[in-house]
Amino acid sequence: MPFLFSAVTDLLQALEDNAASTRKAMRGWLHQKNKDCIESWVKSYKITVDSPSVDAVAVLSALFPDKRTDRVYRLQAPSLSKILGRCFKLGTARIKQLDQWKTPGSGDLGLCVERTLRETEHGQIINPVTLAEIDSMLHTIASKCRFSAPGVQATATDDGIEASKLIDSIYRRLSSKEAKWLTRMILKDFSTLDFKTYHVLNAIDRGLVNAMNVHSTYDAAIGFLRHQKTLPESQVSPPASLKPIVGSKIGRVPYLKGRSVKNVVNLAAGRKMSVEQKYDGEYCQIHIDLAKGDDCIQIFSKSGKESTTDRQRLHKAIRQSLRIGKPDCGFKRKCIVEGLMSMSI
Q1: Tell me, what's the pLDDT at 345?
Q2: Which residue in 68, 146, 71, 140 sits closest to 310, CA to CA?
Q3: Residue 292, phi then psi, degrees to nearest 5
Q4: Which residues are bridge partners to 334 per DSSP?
Q5: Which residues contact 161 (CB under 8 A, 6 or more apart)?
Q6: Edge-to-edge strands of the sheet including 297-301?
């Protein structure tokens, strides 16, 4: 049986209801309640990294749309609102109702979509939308955008179908609640929710948190775990020995911001520390694979988005500083470098 999109929106709605009914002073209780809710949901649908009926990558992409930095839709609230108005053939009064998101205190576009569609909602949906259809639609829209990652753009097809038509074909089969959450997915805005990422990752697979620290994309992390499950127990890599792969961005270590020297000492709590000079600049992670010849450089931004093409002017400096192609190059085949891109004055 296909995994329905409504199953995902049921969880998201439950998490939103939890957040709305909990005061800020009770966040610890909220996180425990959300953890129980997430674990129960994952267990009930038997979601695992190697589940034959549920694509774990699609599930995580739906629950954490902001993490899919490789997908860029070029749709903001104003443009998406116009598309939806045409999609549902709304009259002047209902378009005004849909556009209430522009008024402070009236909710976001997702909530306004739900309120607008609920008025004419009736009966059971005959042809419910699956999560696979949602994921495919989002991927297709992103593949047609030049700001998406090269790997996503490479899957684009010359079918001439515009994003608005793809959106139209899906939204017409959604309930008002499902339309609300799809709107928020497209806009990558789940600001009404407050739950921990690792609660979801742990519920799906205990090794997923560690895998994401080394392979920061869902495809790479889940692909790694799937491969591990096919190996004899003696060949399975323990968490401490997980190795990064060139071409797959490594998860960044957590950082704490020091407010003063005294605060930094307290944060250190007796641990050994390394100190380096801080330069103003933009974080980047540079992957080098000499086997790729002239295309050996791959650059990732802080968010995880591939910025190789955007940072074309940086390539010469990278080659020179790493001595690529020179006899005294410090590595033979591959390397990963973290640093700051600083503009010279």
Answers
A1: 46
A2: 146
A3: -90, 5
A4: 289
A5: 140
A6: 297-301, 282-289, 334-341
pLDDT at 11: 97
Q: How many CA atoms lie within 13 A of 196 on its CB side?
A: 18
Helices (runs of H) and strands (runs of E) counted in the chain: 15, 3
Q: What is the pLDDT of residue 83?
A: 95
CA distance 205 to 225: 9
Q: Give the residue from 137, 139, 121 showing the smallest Cα distance to 129.
A: 137
Tokens 């605060």 belong to residue: 263
Strand, coil or helix: what is 271?
Answer: coil
Pair 38, 203: CB distance under 8 Å: yes
Q: Say how far apart CA 41 and CA 253 lie, in whole Å.
A: 29
- CA 341 – CA 283 distance, rounded (Å): 6
The first and second tokens of residue 83, run together, are 């598309």
Residues written for the chain: 345
In sequence order, what are the residues at sequence separation of 6 or more whose Cβ sits closer than 8 angstroms to the Cβ of residue 237? 228, 243
Q: Compute mean pLDDT per 10 residues along the chain, 345 residues long, and list them.
A: 93 95 79 95 93 92 94 95 94 94 94 92 83 96 91 86 91 95 97 93 92 85 86 70 81 78 84 76 91 92 85 90 91 91 65
3-state secondary structure of 341: strand
Quote the CA–CA distance of 57 and 139 in Å, as a whole number. 12
Rounded distance between C-alpha atoms, residue 59 and residue 65, angstroms: 10
Q: How many Å apart are CA 103 and CA 107, to the nearest integer? A: 8
Burial of 264 (0-12, 13-18, 19+ CB in 10 A): middle
CB proximity list for 94: less than 8 A, separation 6 or greater:
88, 116, 119
Q: What is the DSSP letter of 312?
A: G
Whole-structure pTM value: 0.83
